[in-house]
Amino acid sequence: MSDKQVVIYSTPTCHFCKQAKEFFAANNVEYTEHDVASDQEKAQEMVTRSGQMGVPVIFIGEEMVIGFDEERIKNLLGL
Predict the structure, then answer these.
(1) Residue 59's pLDDT band (boundaries 50, 70, 90)?
(2) pLDDT for the residue 24
(3) 3-class DSSP state for residue 16?
(4) Where are the alpha helices (DSSP H) in the chain?
(5) In what order do the strands lie in the sheet with 63-66?
(6) pLDDT digits (tens, 9 = 90+) for 19-57
(7) Is 10:36 a contact under the CB 8 Å cutoff?
(8) 26, 33 in Cβ contact below 8 A?
(9) Which of 15, 42, 53, 74 has the highest Cβ tally under 10 A?
(10) CA–CA dist 6, 79 (Å, integer)
(11) What pTM was estimated for this model as a whole?
C-alpha cells in the first residue's frame, strides 16, 4: 500500500468525486477531502495548485490527477 498522502478536492454533487471516494474506500486508501463547494479557501487553494476549476482534483503525493482516472490512480498508489 502506498504511503503517499492522498488529497481530493470535491463537491457533494460530483459523480466522479463520489466514484473516487468509493474507490479509495474499497482499496483502504486513507485520504483527506476538501469540499470546495462550502470552503472558499480550499477552492482557491485547489485552483492555485492545479489551475483547474472542475472537480475532482486529486493529489497523490505531488502527482496531480484531474477527474477520476482509475488506472492512473492505481499506478500512483501502487495498486
Answers:
(1) very high
(2) 98
(3) helix
(4) 15-26, 40-50, 70-77
(5) 32-35, 6-10, 57-60, 63-66
(6) 999 999 999 999 999 999 999 999 999 999 999 999 999
(7) yes
(8) no
(9) 42
(10) 14
(11) 0.93
How many residues are present in the chain?
A: 79
CATH H-level superfamily of 11-77: Glutaredoxin (3.40.30.10)
Count CB-CB contacts under 10 A for residue 42. 17
What are the sequence ranges of the domains in the chain?
Answer: 11-77
Spatial separation of the C-alpha atoms in residues 31 and 24, rounded to whole Å:
8
Q: By C-alpha distance, which of 56, 54, 36 is closest to 44? A: 36
pLDDT tens readout for residues 66-76: 999 999 999 99
Q: In degrees rounded to 5, what are phi and psi of residue 65? A: -120, 125
